[in-house]
Amino acid sequence: MTTHDRVKSVEMKNKQLIVILKPEGFYEIDWQEIKGQINEEQIMIQEKLYKHFRKDRSEALFSLGLSEKITSISESLSYLRSIAVTFVKKLSKKQDIELSGQKIIVTIKEEEIKDLLNKSPYLIGDEYLNSEWIRKVWKDLNKVFSKMKQNYNGSVEEFLKTFNYDVHLHGRIFFHLVEKKGDDYPFAFMGTYLAEASKNGATKHLPLKNALIEYEKNEKKLVELLATVNKACEKSAFISKLVKSGQIFHQVGLNSKEAYTFLKEIPLYEESGISCRIPNWWKNKSNALKMAVTIGNEIPSRVTLDALVDFKVELSLGESKIDAAELKKLISEAEGLAFIKGKWVEVDRKKLEKTLKAYEQAQSLVSGNNMSMIEAMRFKLNAGKILKIPEEVCELEVSNGEWINSMITRLTNIDSIESIACGNDFHAKLRSYQERGLSWLYFMKNLGLGACLADDMGLGKTVQVIALLNYYKNIKKEKTLLIIPTSLIGNWMSEIEKFAPTLKYYILHPTENKNPYHDGSIYEQDYELFITTYGMLSKYEWIKNRTWDSVILDEAQAIKNPRTKQTRVVKQLKANYRIAMTGTPIENRLSDLWSLFDFLNKGLLGSSREFTDFTKKLKQNQDNYSKLKQVVSPFILRRLKTDKTIISDLPEKIEMKTYPTLTKKQIVLYTKLVEDLKLKIESTDNGIERKGIVLSSIMKFKQICNHPDQYLGQNNYAEKDSGKFERLREICENIYEKRERVIVFTQFKEITEQLSSFLETVFKHKGLVFHGSTAAKKRKDIVAKFQGEEYVPFMILSIKAGGVGLNLTSANHVIHFDRWWNPSVENQATDRAFRIGQMKNVIVHKFIVKGTIEEKIDLMIEDKTKLSKEIVSDKQENWITEMDNNQLMDLFKLEI
């Protein structure tokens, strides 16, 4: 192994292939970092898969469906494989497959599509997963199979064997079992075969005895036809007996014991390549014993997570309910098939005894009436464990009673929730989906249920929460604690002042208030909202000792790791109501989901160990994903920009101003530069010299706002030293979670490479850089690569080089890292993404550092009474040099 190979191997040990869903049956394959490590063999398997998918996606998926189960692949790739496996299984069961030539179409039923949808794990892009998406993938599998088979000279069975697939192609033989009435032999067995296609291509079933006549003079053909029966004889004494007696060629009456033997052996017959037609009650287990638990039928005396709820347990055989006495009677029957209440039922004593024990245990829980609402909602996840009944013993159905069902319906169908106003002095008109979000938050608060507001970036989570706080300000005195990343302090201040100027808030952070109030006396003052950061929270002991009316987390993925000190401190907070805000799809990593809900609604997903045990079962049985979604979905409100109910309510281009704050290092440099500038302009009378000093200072202030190292000419560019870099990471982490793309504009060529290096650490992928020095012959290749199918998450552009002429519509995010202060130039740059061919809403993020020249000039540009856009556009920054000294110092001085 070469040094390069060893380095690459180390890099790949903590990466896993994942699937990102796209519209209309499309998907992409990409790498994602994981917490653990995989071995060399698993690395090789994944790299081989990646190359195959890059070469031919449909062919790779078909091949994956023919492969043995690979334990090391991701849940998303495993799910995609399950679609292909379903296709291959149905393909192998087509009895006329060798008779059909190239005209082989494998169909999929609606119930099979529904089953695949129910088994889906949490996926990136799962908003696109629906029946049509499955059908499109299925159609591609049919096409690729037809194409690959056409290029192969041989039978379908031989073709499939080239993939080392353990082929069990179904032949033309069918075994039938039907019920008979009023007979000592209540069942009848019969063998049939599929006759060869006629000239018009039609096929038909004939009794097996007809084959003796049809192939009377062609023993070879008869032997080929009966090959699957001979295989079954090797595995089944029952079939061997029928063959030896010649009864295999005739209709045969069976008693219940013989019929039970036949039904139990069906997997053996199918492995041998025989198709079986059997009664639906056995196939669908519709007559099987089932235990049904119904939770929350009656309205509890008080609606909280601790409220006790009722539940009842019932046993049934098919549609008929039975009691414990009838179950005991059933246990006394002989093993096999028993005719009970007008239907045939399987009697397996061991299973029935375990079911009876579980039923009696469940009944004791009913009499104790000791299940809280949180336990009731969690019950679906671990009902089998609580009742000590394995899945294979008895079907266990857990359903919500009338009251819980009505409540969950309202939570998940927010249009049914009564709307509320935003309160007095609220200076914004909410979009209709934001109004529904506000009502949902209010409804959750009244129920005392923790709420996760997980709307897509750009849909206005902040304004919905501010509207809720403003509404409560008018009806009740409450104390709310808001915890945010440091980089969002400026944003929240600006949004509150803009939308709810009479909402009284206090920032518990040294960048805004020097008085730390460690004694907590500030709590008694007339503030409704206290804002602090995740980093500062542990420094205020009094915060943990209070019971807050509400605690709100912004960028709540900050507590995704339950082991960090930061997360532990947040979870010590006491509150009557909790909100978690996040634009990141929290379900992408199940451990993150548990940690978030441990804060929102403690106990809903059990303890960390219980949830870990549950997630291990997900890999064995994907049906459990639907149970998990049913449990958590009522507490998550996530609207996407692609939602049909949202998209008509949105502008095609969403502009967002984001307000990073200066770090300590930036404050020191900025303040010193202001002092130096004051001395220089006061000591010169030369107009040209003064103009040069002012213009060069503007550039220096911009550099400090970007990163201290840009101003100092150093190359470290530590994230902690720049508020913009911190905010850039937070925004781009959200973009990466959805595998979207972004273009970042800066006016400084010298910072493009540093931004690129930094974003590589965020996206775990290399990006592209485009500036004035980029060779002309490379420019087309760079654009083509960014627009291509392979995931290239970002491009850094200097605004002069990339501002015009480029088509970069694969990006739906634009970040203006520093401002050009010329709206027309910025708009031209934004239009690289927002132009013909763009299929998504474009979000434009404009970085404006709070309290600096960036914020002041932005306000001046907006205020047309002070300065028209045309003046700024025409003269760029020269107009600033025409200010007098006092005006200049007001513009440049730092206000924090």
UniProtKB/TrEMBL annotation:
Could you tell me which SUPFAM superfamilies the record lists for this protein? P-loop containing nucleoside triphosphate hydrolases (SSF52540)
Q: Which InterPro entries match?
A: DUF3670, Helicase_ATP-bd, Helicase_C-like, P-loop_NTPase, SNF2-like_sf, SNF2/RAD54-like_C, SNF2_N
Looking up Gene3D superfamilies in the UniProt record yields:
P-loop containing nucleotide triphosphate hydrolases, Tandem AAA-ATPase domain
Q: List the keywords (alphabetical).
A: ATP-binding, Helicase, Hydrolase, Nucleotide-binding
**Annotated Helicase C-terminal domain residues:** 727-892
The lineage's top-level taxon is Bacteria
Q: Which organism is it from?
A: Anaeromicrobium sediminis
- PANTHER family the UniProt entry points to: SNF2/RAD54 HELICASE FAMILY
Q: Residue limits of the Helicase ATP-binding domain? A: 442-603
**Name recorded for this polypeptide:** ATP-dependent helicase
UniProt-recorded Gene Ontology molecular function terms: ATP binding; helicase activity; hydrolase activity
Pfam families documented for this protein: DUF3670, Helicase_C, SNF2-rel_dom
